[in-house]
Amino acid sequence: YLAVSGYKHDLKIYSRKSKNPKDWFKKENTTDLSDKFEEAVYGLDLNSQGLVGASSWDSRVYVYDLENEKEILNQKFREIGHIYTFKFIPETNYAIIAGGDGIEIINFRNSETKWKKLGPDIGKAVSLSPDNKEIAFTKRGEFDKIYFLDISNIEELKPDQKPEEKQVLNEDGKPTELPENWRLFYTPDGKYLVVDKKYLVLSSLNKDQLTIIDCQSMKISRRYGFGVTAVFVDQKGNIISPNASKIQLVYID
């Protein structure tokens, strides 16, 4: 499947079962879930079970079974605020939702909360490790650290379990701060975290726009100053980052 969301609360899923890409976008191969939302859809994920999950600006979380054409979850989680992130935790019935006022792990089958941490701008930048054993996230106003939550035994996870705080270090191993961050990504090998700063039109303010951190030492490995409007980390660990005028390709190793 190919899932596409838009700013005007659009959510459409296209079936890719046909070998001809032109067939994917035909009406009979399209599932339109746009009427399930009243505000823009920001979080979006598909899993191997044929489920699509989405979250929206008005705190709604929606999970739909594409194979059986069945609604699994349709609920608002208002404590989290505007929900920017929805991410399935593979091989489980859990998903991560994160927004302006917190981060939460929910059971999307019964809508129960497994773990939650609330607070202003907690979880705006959040990422699931490639081995699905750890969640990394930041908190606005505390740019000198990154939080890590161990979910390797998720069934035993306590609702109030404290995440581990790790100090960010500069290239010389001294405590430092990251720029105000917008997104956070693990590289596919789990060795690095890629942190990007919200892009500003005034390019003179875009210093350290993209920061790469070694997960083992927590040292900043590299910094880049070019303007970033989006970030994608491919399966080889390369960073593809388009801006208004060109695409940057960064090789980490």
SSE layout:
Elements: E1 2-5, E2 11-14, H1 21-24, E3 30-32, E4 41-46, E5 51-56, E6 60-65, E7 70-76, E8 83-88, E9 94-99, E10 102-107, E11 113-118, E12 122-128, E13 134-139, E14 145-150, E15 164-167, E16 181-186, E17 192-197, E18 210-214, E19 220-224, E20 232-233, E21 239-242, E22 247-250
Antiparallel strand pairs: 1-2, 2-3, 4-5, 5-6, 6-7, 8-9, 9-10, 10-11, 12-13, 13-14, 14-15, 16-17, 17-18, 18-19, 20-21, 21-22
Distance between the termini: 32 Å
Task: Figure out the total of helices.
Answer: 1
Strand content: over 45%
* Category by helix and strand content: mainly beta
State the share of residues found in helices, binned by percent.
under 10%
Q: How many β strands by DSSP?
A: 22
**What form results from the Cα inertia axes?**
globular
Written account of the structure:
This protein is an all-beta fold and 253 residues long. The protein contains 1 helix and 22 strands. Strand 13 and strand 14 (145-150) form a beta hairpin.
